[in-house]
Amino acid sequence: MRTCRASAAGKFTVVLATIVVLAGCGGGPSPRAWAASVCGALTPWRSEINKLTSSTDEQMTAQTTPAQAKENLVRLFDGAEQASEAARRKVEKAGIPEAENGEAISAGFRGSLGKMRDAYGRARDTIDGLATGEPAAFYDGVRAAVETLNKEYDASALDTSKLNSEELKQAFDEVPECR
Hints:
Elements: H1 2-25, H2 31-61, H3 66-94, H4 102-128, H5 135-155, H6 166-174
Helix pairs in contact: 2-3, 2-6, 3-4, 4-5
């Protein structure tokens, strides 16, 4: 009797495993739906980053005290870090597209946004740690932090040459959210 139950349990396990595997294979969004979700996440992020970049540039040339500049820059970089994380979470929520290399492409987008988020956080922390008593030294530190941020930001860019999917390229070209 134990053999029959073990055999039935084994069959049930195989059926259950097959259902789980099949559900995992066909549950992702279509390329168009995924591209729309990703562009829906990246469009406001890009706008926020552009706004924050302009504000940072203004802070670098404004006639403020080092303490005021420090407070403003820390707030700006904190906002950029939060915006990058919000975009990363939205891309993660979009899921894995049903497309060739879909998992790698989704991971690439999330990884790139995570690196950008971290670069902004490091810039914020660096500037937050600068002393404001000597203006020249403070602004030299800010310039160095922004230079490092720019290098890290450039290095975090998504290498699309490794994430090739004709379906997704076409989807990104066609969906209105990406225009």
